[in-house]
Design a protein that fits this description.
homodimer; alpha/beta; Amino acid/polyamine transporter I; Rossmann fold; 2 domains; 5-stranded parallel sheet; 3-stranded antiparallel sheet; 25 helices; 8 strands; about 65% helix; about 5% strand; transmembrane (chains A, B)
C-alpha cells in the first residue's frame, strides 16, 4: 500500500527527445554529475596529502595538473564517441558492439556499482558541506545521509518531472558561486593585497606517523593515492555520450562542443579551489584520524569542515550571503548528481533486462514497476554504504573511481576496434585520415585511462577498492548466470517449424466443489459453456454430514453435471483430489484435464487468509502434472470493490499529478455493474 | 525447505480410539498436566506467603486445605460432565451447546490463551527445577526455556507417536518420587526422630516492606494471592472430560473413577510437599526481590532453588540417587505437560476452524499443514512469554490461572443449564432425582469456581492477570470477526434453488503470447481442444523488431489461430492487454472470456523471479473483471524435476518413519515420462 502511494507516473522515455536541447540547457542537464565532483575532489587531494604533514600540501599543484591532463584526454576521447555514435551509444553499447557481450557486461557491472557509489558519495558530500551551515549534523552524518537518500527515492518513485530549467538554475548557480568565489578571493589577495587566511591556516599538520620519514616509495604511493582520489573529478563526464540524440542539430557537433565546455569548466573550478586553498593556507585532516593538527606545537582537535565551506567562509567573511549561496548551491548540485544516478540506474537495468542479463519482467512489464524496483534497489544499496561508512566521503571515495575507469578503459578499447573495423572497409582517403586520427586519439585515451585505472587499483586496492572490484565481479557473474538460464530455457522451449503438433483428443472438465454457492455455480456455468467432452463436479468428503448436505443442495439445483464424492479418511482435501485427477490422466493419457477452481476475489489482504487457501495449494500441485490445466473462475465478493477503488485512486492520482499530460491507459477494469 | 524437513507425518486422530485405555494407562495419559502443577503450585504458595515475613509461612496449611477443597469441588463437578457427555464434550462443546456460541467462544479464547501459558509455565518450571542439578543455568533461564520450547515444537512438527507407556513411566515415576520422598521424609522425622533441616532452614525471611505491619486487609489480600497461585494445582484436571471415548467400557464410569483418583493423588502430593516444607523449615523468596533473607540478623543472598529441589536434597541427603530421581521425573513430567498443550492447541484450533471461528483452511486442508501452523503459533507465543519473563514461574503464574477458572465457571454454568433442560422433558422420577442431584453438584461447582475466579482476578489483576484477560478478549474478538466475515460471505454467495441460471452464450478464448515457443504452442493446443466459440492469440508489441519476428514465427507454425498485435507506446504489457480483454467484454456482455496464459513450472524459487511475472500480474488484474476466467497452461521445464523430487523425498521420509504404518496417499504426481 505504502509503495502504491509512493509510486507515481513515470516520465516517458521519449520525452527528452521531443524537445531538443540547446547547448545552454544541455550543459546543465548533463553536467551536474561531473561538476558536482568539484565539491569533493579537491578535499580528497588535500586530505590525502595531509598524511605527509605540512610538506604534502606543496604537491597539490602537480596533482591538480595531472588530473586536468587526464580530463583533457577523456574529453578528447569521448568527443570521438559522440561523433561515432550519434544515436547515444553509451559505454555499454560501445563495448558490446565492438568487443562482445562479455566486455559489455564488464562495463555494465562497473556502471551499476558506480551508480550506487555516485548516490552514496554525492549525498555524503552534501551532508559534509551542510555541516558548514548546520554544525549540529556532526556525529550523525550517516543517518542524515540515509534520510536524504530515502527522500530522493521517494521523489523518484513518485516520478519527478525534470525539465531543463530544473537543472539549469542550480548548475549555473554552482558555477557562478565557485568561480565567483575564486575570482573574488584572488582579487582580494592580489588586487587588494589582503592577507586572507582560512580558519585552519594557523594550524600545523603533524601528518601520519607511518609517513613521517617521507621519502622515495612511500611518497610516490601517497601521491598516487592523492591523484586517484582527485580523479573523482572525472566521474560523470561520459554522461553526454548517452545523450547525443537530445541535442539540437547538428547533434554530434553540439554534443562535442558541450563536452569540451564541460571539461574546461570542471578543470577550471578544480584548479581554482586548489589555488585558493594554497593561498589561504587551508588545511584538511583525515577524519579517519591518520593525520593530526597542532597549534603552536600543541596537538589540538578541530571540526572537519570541507574546503568549500572554509573557502566560502574566508572569501565572503564580510559578505555572508555569498557564503550561504556557495554552500546552498553546492548542496543542491550534489543532490542533483545523486538524482542522475536514480534516473540512469533503472534505464541501464531495463536495457540489461532487454538483453536477458536481468529478469525480463524488468523490461517487458514496462515502466512503473521495473523502474520502482531499480530505484528501491539503488537507494537500499546506497543507504547501506552511507551507514557503514558514516557518510565519510574519504572512505567512500576509495571504492568510487575504480568503476568509472574500468568503463572508460573498456569503452576506449571498444572505440579503437570501432575505427579499425571501419577502416577495413572505408576507401575514401579523407574519411580514412579522419578515422585514423580518431583511432590515435582513442588509443591515447585507452593508454591514459588504462594507466589511471592501474594507479587507482594499485594505490587504493587495500583501502577499499577491492570491495568495489568484488561487487563488480559478483554483479557480473549474477548477470551472466541469468543470461545463461534464459538461453537454456529458450533452447529447451524452442519450436521447430516442422514439428508435428498433436491436438489433445478430448478435454475432461473437473470442477472442484467445496460448497454449493454462487462461486461454485459460476464455475459450473463457465465449465458447461466451454463444451468439454466430459464434465463432472468433484468434492472431497471430510465430514459426512457436510457431504450429505452438499449432495442434497446439488440435487436441488437440478444441474446436469454429476457430483462425485471422494472419501478422505484424514480430513485432507488436496491429496485425494490430486489422486483423482492423476487417475483420470493415467486412464486417458491422450486427453487433457481442465480443473475449474472457484475463486473468491477479496478486497483486503487479510481476507485472502480466510479464502482460497485450498484452491491455491491445489493449483500449485496441479501445475506439476503434465496435461492438466487449471482455470480460475473468479467471483467478486462485495469487498473486492475496496481493492478496485484503491487501484482506481492510484491511477487517478497519477493522472492528476501536475505535468503528466499524456493519456495513460487504465490498468484495472472499470467494471460496469453487470454480473 | 526447513519446515518441510521438520514436518513429518501426523498421528491420525482416530488412533487413540482404536486401542481403548484401561484406567491404569488412562490415568497417566490424562494426568501429566494436572500432576505436573504439583511441581510449582506449592512454591508459589510459599513464595507469596514469604512476602509477609516469617509469620506468613504459618498460613500455608489453611491455604493448602482451601486448594484441596476447590479440587474436591472441581472433581465432583467434572464427574457430572463425564457422565453427561460420554462422547467427550470438553468445555467448549458444553458451553456452546448449553449457553450458545458466544459462551463457547469465551471458553475457547480462555483455553487457547491457557494452552500458551501451560507451555510457558511448565517449561519454565522445568528449567527452574533443573537448576538443582545444573546450577549454571542461573541467569539464562529465559533462553534455556526458549530452546526447550523450540525442541518441543520440532518434536511435535515431526509428529511424535505418543503411546500410553510413553506417558505411564514418567508419570508413575513422578508419583512414586514425590510420594516416596514425602513418606521417607515423614518417617525420618517421626519414625527415626531425626531433625531434618532444609538448606534454607537457618534463614530468616525479612518479608516485603510493604507488608511489614501485616494486619487486616493487607494480610487478607496476601492470603488471597497465595491461594490464587496455589490454584494452579487445578489446571489440567478437566482434560479427562475430553477423553471419555478413549476409556474402556463402562467408559463414563471408568473416566469418573480416574478423575477421582487424579484429584486425590494431586491433593495428596500437594499436601505432602507443604507439610514437609513446614517440618524442615524450608524458606522460599520472591525472585522479583520483594522479600529478603537474613541470617543471624544480617541480610544475605541465596540462589533460588525450588521447594522440590530443596526437599529432595534434604530428604535424600544420604541417598543421592533418590534426589536425582525426583528432579529428573519432575523435569520429564513438566515437559510432558507442555507437550499435552502442543497436542490440544491444534485440535481445538481445528474444531474452531470447523465452526468458522478460524480460517477454514485449518480444518478442511486436513492434518499436516493445519497442525503445523498451530504448533508453530503456540511455540512462538510461549517463547515470547518465557523471554519476556525470563522463565520466572512466579511472574507467569500471575497470568495463568485466570483462563482455567473462566473455562471451569462457564462450563459449570453450562452443565446447570444442561440438567435444567433435560429436567424439563424427563418424566422418570429416579432419573429426575439423579439429575437434580447432579444439578446441585454443578451449582456448587459453579459457585466454587466462580468465587475462585473472582478471588484470582481481584488478587492478581494488577500483577499480570489483566494481560491474560486482554489476550482472551483479543482472541475472542478476532474469532468473532472471522465468523462474522464467513457468515457475510456465505449470505452473499448463497444460491436459492429457484434462481434462474443463465449459461454464458459463448466462450471467447484469448491466448497471451510473449514468445513463440513450446509453452505457447501448448497453450494454443489446449485452447483449441476446448472448442471455444472464437479463439485468437494476442501479443503486446513493446519492440517492433521483436514483434515482427514473433509474427514471422507464428506464420511459420501454420496455426489456424489468428495472432493479434496490440500497440504499446510505453513498453507496458499488462495495461494494453487488460484493455483489450475489457473491450471484448463490453462488446459482448453475455459472453465469457477465457484467457490462456502459458506458465513455466520451475524447480527453484529463484527461477520464478525470472519467469511468469507478467502472467502473474495479468492473472491478479484479470481476477477483478467479471465474466473473465483465467486458465494456466503449465509447461514443465527440465528443472521442475528438482521440485518434484523434493516433494517425493518428503513423502518417502514420512512413510519410512518408524511407527507410521498406515498407507498415506501421495500428494504429488508421479508423472510418467509422457508429454
Amino acid at each position: 500500500m505504502v509503495k502504491r502511494l509512493l509510486v507515481g507516473r513515470k516520465l516517458a522515455n521519449a520525452q527528452l527527445g521531443e524537445t531538443l536541447l540547446p547547448k545552454r540547457i544541455a550543459l546543465p542537464v548533463f553536467a551536474s554529475d561531473a561538476l558536482s565532483s568539484v565539491a569533493y575532489a579537491p578535499d580528497e587531494i588535500l586530505l590525502t596529502l595531509s598524511l605527509a604533514g605540512m610538506a604534502g600540501f606543496y604537491y597539490s599543484w602537480p596533482i591538480a595538473l595531472a588530473v586536468a591532463a587526464v580530463m583533457l584526454i577523456v574529453v578528447l576521447s569521448y568527443r570521438q564517441t559522440v561523433h561515432a555514435y550519434p544515436s547515444g551509444g553509451g559505454d555499454y553499447e560501445v563495448a558490446t558492439v565492438n568487443l562482445g557481450p562479455n566486455a559489455g557486461l564488464v562495463v555494465a557491472s562497473a556502471l551499476l556499482v558506480d551508480y550506487i557509489l555516485t548516490v552514496a558519495v554525492s549525498v555524503s558530500s552534501g551532508v559534509q558541506n551542510a555541516k558548514a551551515i548546520f554544525p549540529a549534523l556532526q556525529g550523525n552524518e550517516g543517518w542524515v545521509a540515509a534520510l536524504g537518500i530515502l527522500a530522493l527515492m521517494a521523489m523518484n518513485l513518485r516520478g519527478v518531472r525534470e525539465s531543463g530549467s530544473f537543472f539549469a538554475i542550480p548548475t549555473y548557480g554552482f558555477m557562478i558561486g565557485v568561480l565567483g568565489m575564486t575570482g573574488w578571493g584572488l582579487f582580494r589577495i592580489f588586487g587588494m593585497g589582503e592577507h586572507l587566511q582560512a580558519p585552519t591556516a594557523g594550524l600545523e599538520v603533524i601528518g601520519s606517523p607511518s609517513f613521517e620519514p617521507l621519502a622515495g616509495v612511500a611518497m610516490v604511493v601517497l601521491l598516487a593515492r592523492a591523484f586517484s582520489s582527485g580523479c573523482a573529478a572525472l566521474t560523470g563526464v561520459e554522461a553526454i555520450s548517452n545523450g547525443v540524440p537530445a541535442f539540437r542539430e547538428p547533434k554530434s557537433h553540439n554534443a562535442a562542443t558541450t563536452l569540451a565546455l564541460l571539461g574546461g569548466i570542471a578543470v577550471t573550478m578544480l584548479a581554482g579551489i586548489i589555488v585558493l586553498a594554497n593561498l589561504t593556507g587551508l588545511k584538511l585532516v583525515d577524519p579517519e584520524g591518520h593525520s593530526h593538527f597542532a597549534k603552536n606545537g600543541i596537538p589540538t582537535e578541530v571540526a572537519h569542515e570541507t574546503a568549500m565551506g572554509q573557502l566560502a567562509r574566508t572569501v565572503f567573511d564580510t559578505f555572508p550571503p555569498g557564503f550561504y549561496f556557495v554552500i546552498a548551491m553546492t548542496m543542491i548540485i550534489l543532490i542533483l548528481a545523486a538524482n542522475t544516478a536514480f534516473n540512469g540506474f533503472p534505464v541501464l537495468g531495463s536495457i540489461l533486462a532487454r538483453d536477458g542479463f536481468l529478469p525480463k519482467a524488468l523490461h517487458t512489464r514496462g515502466d512503473r514497476l521495473a523502474y520502482s524496483n531499480g530505484i528501491i534497489a539503488l537507494a537500499a544499496a546506497a543507504i547501506v554504504l552511507v551507514l557503514i561508512y558514516n557518510a565519510s566521503v574519504t572512505s567512500l571515495i576509495q571504492l568510487y573511481v575504480v568503476g568509472v575507469f574500468v568503463s572508460f578503459t573498456v569503452s576506449q578499447f571498444g572505440m579503437m576496434r570501432h575505427w579499425t573495423r571501419h577502416l577495413a572497409t572505408e576507401r575514401d582517403p579523407k574519411v580514412r585520415a579522419r578515422m585514423q586520427r580518431s583511432r590515435v586519439i582513442n588509443a591515447i585515451g585507452l593508454t591514459g585511462t588504462g594507466i589511471v585505472l592501474v594507479i587507482v587499483l594499485a594505490s587504493k586496492f587495500i583501502y577499499g577498492a577491492y570491495l568495489a572490484v568484488l561487487a563488480m565481479a559478483a554483479v557480473f557473474l549474477l548477470m551472466r548466470s541469468i543470461r545463461r538460464h534464459y538461453e537454456k530455457v529458450s533452447r529447451e522451449t524452442a519450436v521447430s517449424p516442422t514439428e508435428a503438433r498433436l491436438l489433445p483428443s478430448r478435454v475432461r472438465a473437473v470442477i472442484m466443489v467445496q460448497e454449493v454457492n454462487k462461486p461454485t455455480m459460476r464455475a459450473v456455468n463457465f465449465a458447461r459453456a466451454t463444451r468439454a467432452s466430459s464434465i463432472e463436479a468433484v468434492t472431497v468428503s471430510i465430514d459426512e454430514a457436510e457431504t450429505r448436505s452438499i449432495m442434497a443442495e446439488w440435487e436441488a439445483q437440478g444441474l446436469e453435471v454429476p457430483l462425485r464424492v471422494i472419501a478422505s479418511p484424514y480430513r485432507e482435501v488436496t491429496g485425494p483430489f490430486l489422486n483423482y485427477v492423476k487417475g483420470i490422466r493415467s486412464d486417458n493419457p491422450r486427453d487433457v484435464v481442465c480443473v475449474y477452481i472457484p475463486e473468491y476475489v477479496v478486497g483486503h489482504w487479510w481476507e485472502s487468509l480466510l479464502h482460497n487457501q485450498t484452491g491455491l495449494i491445489l493449483k500449485a500441485r496441479l501445475n506439476f502434472m503434465q496435461g492438466v490445466m487449471v482455470t480460475s473462475v473468479p467471483y467478486l465478493l462485495a469487498s473486492s470493490r475496496y481493492a478496485i477503488n484503491r487501484a482506481k485512486r492510484d491511477n487517478v492520482a497519477a493522472w492528476r499529478r501536475p505535468g503528466s499530460g499524456q493519456v495513460r491507459m487504465s490498468d484495472t477494469d472499470d467494471r460496469p455493474a453487470q454480473k
